[in-house]
Amino acid sequence: MKYLKFILASMFLIFVLRGFLFRATVQYYEASSLPNRVIGDEAFLQWVDQLPPTSDIHEIAKRCLQICAERLRFTDQKCDTDPNLLFASQKTNCIGYAAFFSATCQVLLHQNHLEKKYAVQHLRGHLSFLGMNVHRWFGSPFFKDHDYNLIQDKETGERFYLDASTYDLLGIGYVNGGD
Asked: Taking the model in full, what pTM does it have?
């Protein structure tokens, strides 16, 4: 019984600290920036227009992560990555999550009149775990790189790195990014 309590307490602690542990051990390194796509689906744009306004960039980031998690499902199979096609197919990989996140974020920034203050980028790069490039551990082309996002304050230069696919799978949205 004593070991069971220890195991359950350890699992609970890991669950609660998963974001901190992930950010402490995993680093994102940018290799390239991809062009942002524009969402043209009128039903989606009308739905977004009904969201309450906010000037808080972290609230906008949170909304984008939640929208991606609600609308998309992760797959390692061949799939759509264009945000406009994802309304129908819904299944995508990290490329589609990052493209959908950046397109959604652009809409929310525009809706809240913040597009002059903040910029969102779709990034492609590599992940390291405790300083080791994790992509070298996999032989599959599916794991050759990883897509994620950056929101940058144009005035201060402050940067926020986010991963919508990790948010959907693990509940971890903010990640450690760098060059």
From this structure: 0.87
